[in-house]
């Protein structure tokens, strides 16, 4: 199971993620699932088919286009570090399209979502960009159930430092931020890791039926 990046490792993760081999990761995990249980074998078979049909030609790491705001969230796996790419501009559009409402937080209650490595402490070099709102994700799988800021780190930091009474935050949990993944591989990896976790731990988190799996959601 991947762990969201921590402050001291951001530069390291950024560098190491370039050498990650997604197909090797899928292959290793699929084998583990296959050997775990009958359910695991079924899920492994479906993921194997999907990888061959849809992921063989996916580019990694994803190219972040100039002029489009994206955010990289890193996860550490046995074979290396993977970069999940999140489309911040797309997330902002979705907020508008679905009329999603923000949550009001006391800055002290949400400051823990800010990664110190994403804060520019040099105030003379801060480029103000409030085009996109403050966004925080909270994932049982990807952030260990803790809130993690993907946009607006500095605004939360300043609100906390200035003892502001409140700040508006758009909070997205578990499956709610799946549409934010910028590339097919990031989305596939997120679903895949949830299936892997469910198989290995004999759980069905966020699923209804005993033989449900996220590979069907992704293919659907």
Task: Walk me through the topology.
Blueprint: H1 10-16, H2 22-36, H3 38-55, E1 70-77, E2 80-87, H4 88-97, E3 103-105, H5 107-110, E4 135-138, E5 147-151, H6 153-161, E6 167-173, H7 184-200, H8 214-219
Helix pairs in contact: 2-3, 2-7, 3-7
How far apart lie the N and C ends?
A: 24 Å
Task: Return residue spans where pLDDT drops below 50 for at least 5 consecutive residues.
Answer: 1-7
**Coarse morphology:** globular
Question: Compute the gyration radius: what is it?
Answer: 18 Å
Strand content: 15-25%
Helix percentage range: 25-40%
Helix run count? 8
Q: How many strands?
A: 6
Structural class: alpha+beta
Tell me the major beta sheet.
Answer: 4 strands, mixed
Strands of the widest sheet, in order across it, are 3-6-4-5
- H/E series: HHHEEHEHEEHEHH
The average pLDDT value, as a whole number, equals: 90
Organism: Tigheibacillus halophilus
Protein name: ParB-like nuclease domain-containing protein
């Amino acid at each position: 199971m991947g762990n969201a990046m921590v402050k001291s490792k951001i530069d390291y993760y950024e560098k190491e993620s370039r050498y990650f081999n997604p197909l090797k990761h899928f292959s290793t995990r699929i084998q583990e699932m296959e050997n775990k249980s009958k359910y695991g074998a079924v899920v492994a078979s479906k993921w194997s088919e999907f990888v061959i049909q849809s992921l063989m030609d996916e580019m990694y790491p994803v190219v972040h286009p100039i002029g489009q705001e994206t955010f990289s969230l890193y996860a550490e796996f046995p074979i290396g570090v993977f970069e999940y790419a999140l489309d911040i501009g797309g997330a902002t559009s979705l907020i508008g399209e679905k009329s999603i409402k923000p949550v009001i937080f006391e800055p002290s209650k949400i400051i823990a979502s800010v990664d110190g490595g994403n804060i520019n402490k040099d105030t003379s070099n801060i480029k103000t960009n409030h085009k996109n709102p403050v966004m925080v994700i909270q994932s049982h799988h990807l952030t260990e159930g803790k809130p993690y800021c993907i946009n607006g780190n500095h605004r939360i930091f300043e609100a906390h430092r200035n003892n502001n009474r409140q700040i508006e935050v758009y909070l997205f949990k578990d499956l709610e931020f799946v549409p934010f993944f910028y590339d097919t591989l990031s989305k596939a990896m997120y679903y895949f890791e949830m299936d892997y976790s469910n198989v290995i731990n004999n759980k069905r988190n966020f699923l209804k039926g005993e033989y449900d799996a996220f590979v069907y959601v992704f293919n659907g």
